[in-house]
Amino acid sequence: MATILVIANPSDPATRIGYYYMRLFAEHAAKQGHTVIFQKTPTLQALYTAITTYDPKLIVANGHGGFKSLTVGPNVLIGIRSYDEATHKKLDDQNPEWFQGRIVLLLTCNAGRELVQGLINYGAQAVMGYREPFIFLSDDTRSPESDREAKPFFVGLLQPALQLIDGASFGQAIQATKNAFTYYSEEAQQNDKDMAKYLRFDEENLVAMGNFNVRL
Description:
- The chain is built from 6 helices and 11 strands.
- It is α/β, with parallel strands linked by helices.
């Protein structure tokens, strides 16, 4: 069994859906016997404290991604010192060394462009993200649990984490994720071509680097 840090904040419509699915994942992982720390109101200090106190093997973060940073709620939690063209912010500090030896899932837009490689360069075991915006459909008249349009996208998004807690290697988890996107895309092809197109887009823009044999 592993220690898992889950980070999510329902700060806007997109992250409210992500937060709902991250809560479901956290509850499922705890039932599987893993130790789960869930941060709903993360700050940089809270993140540092959680990492140094609990030493999580797996970190799963949902928020808004830049090319070189990840923002959850109002706070930049992961960053590499530079100017981030995606967020138009200058990052004066950095913390990629915090993730050395860990598996990191960046369930967010754009982070696959440079941040994934940056964390690997600083010693993370395995990292995944998306190089382009993570596009999904949603019925904003419904709550996250009854939003049928969003469900295939977020089931796909959570597959790496779900597979890892069930004992899959990082490589197997990434392949299962791609398979899930393919399955839902083919299922939607007849009735909802936009859904099929965006599911394929997300699959194509998934980036994974590091040790594909590592497991929790």
